[in-house]
Amino acid sequence: MEFKGISKTFSTVGEKQYETIGRFWDEMSKIYGRQNLRGLGYNWTEDSIEYVIGLIEGEIEEFNITVSLPDHGWECISGRTEELAEIYGSIYKDGPLKYEIEMFDDDGNCKIMFCR
Q1: pLDDT of 12-30, one tens digit each?
Q2: Which one of 2, 77, 81, 87 has the fewest CB atoms closer than 10 angstroms to its CB?
Q3: CA 38, CA 7: separation in Å to the nearest integer?
């Protein structure tokens, strides 16, 4: 599977990535609509994360990266955005991830797909 989108690197120091990635989502939502976006987190280091926003339907014309992802081995959890900390707590209790794909809607729902 290929994931195409716009890539940025975010600092994870002090868990500031939640705020900065959230702003990235807000910017892209104004252009493409939140319900058509998906975000890919990968390549974690001690102090950063690579994050790509792409479209569920279609393709961002000015995409700057294509990430090759595994076709198999994905797990999925759905829930409410306000419960995101608890959702990630349950995901990470079993160890680090290779990839995560996040999807959110305007009604406060989220879907997290992940691969170890």
Answers
A1: 998 888 899 999 999 999 9
A2: 2
A3: 12
**CA torsion sign, 83 to 33 to 39 to 13?**
negative
Task: Tell me the pTM.
Answer: 0.93
**Residue whose entry in the numeric block shows the structure tokens 């393709």:** 59
85: alpha, beta or left, given left = phi > 0 and alpha = psi -120 to 50? alpha
Report the Cα–Cα distance between both ends of the chain, in Å, rounded: 16
103 within 8 A of 37, measured Cβ to Cβ: yes
The DSSP result for 21-85, as a single string, is HHHHHHHHHHHH-GGGEEEEEE---SSEEEEEEEESSS--TT--EEEE--SS--EEEEEEGGGHH
Asked whether residue 61 carries a pLDDT value surpassing 90, the answer given is no
For the segment 51-77, the average pLDDT, to the nearest whole number, is 95
At residue 78, φ and ψ (nearest 5 deg) are: -115, 150
